[in-house]
Amino acid sequence: xxxLEELAYAAQxxxxxWQAARLAxxxxxxxLWLYVRGQRDFVQETGQVYRxxxxxRSVPATAPPPMSATLSAxxxxxxxxxxxxLLEALQGAAHSPDQKRHAIVLLALLNFIADTGQSGxxxxxxxxxxxxxxxxxxxxxxxxxAEAWLKEIAEPPSPAAxxxxxxxxxxxxxxxxAARGMYRDYILEPHLEGLVAEGIPPSAPSFDTxxxxxxxxxxxxxxxxxxxxxxKEYYLAVYHERLKRHTLHHVASTLKAWxxxxxxxxxxxxxxxx
Length: 274
Fold this sequence. Notes:
By secondary structure, this protein is of the alpha/beta class. It has eleven helices and eight strands. It folds into three domains: 128 residues, no CATH class; 53 residues, no CATH class; 73 residues, no CATH class.
């Protein structure tokens, strides 16, 4: 089974356990299952699936891995409590062999994050992602620069969102056949559409040039979104916390491209259903 499938099944296992805890009114357990799911999201969105796959190979397929020394020392943290929850779920319930494997994958995932020194980064991601722009791991001025980066790395992060200019792309790599590539990813446009529907503030800061707007944003970072006017045209400024930079998205043309994208997807789905 490919690692992305392993992680998808493990995430579904966590979602099922979350649902059971919710229905039973076990609030703390419900929150811990959300935390576990968030740890999976962190590893996947930061392009570390193959790095985790290498780590997972050292874990027995049928026996729970011991808690890492790093996690053992982090008593009273969410990661330590989540590890205990997973061990209890694995040992105390009559799960099928597949479900036990999913739990073992999640146990290994928590160990992996702790052993690679990423516990703080993962918790920051989980706690703050609702208030941040969609995660991008790198920025490039041009597509040529991005493609050169993708070709040069023996095993690039995958799958991982990157920025080329002001646009999101998804970079991907397949270890199984050594293929790699990137494509335009429309993950910001729904946010922009929703913000415009709420209304652009009439008091949005106004600038004559992009350079002026960027200078102002450097000392007034968006949190993570803010409308600005440049040459009497509205833009959405987006602050990318991980990269410490802004992108600027022309509202009218971005919404137009998004509508065209949605129409194209609707036509494709209609053809597929015929």
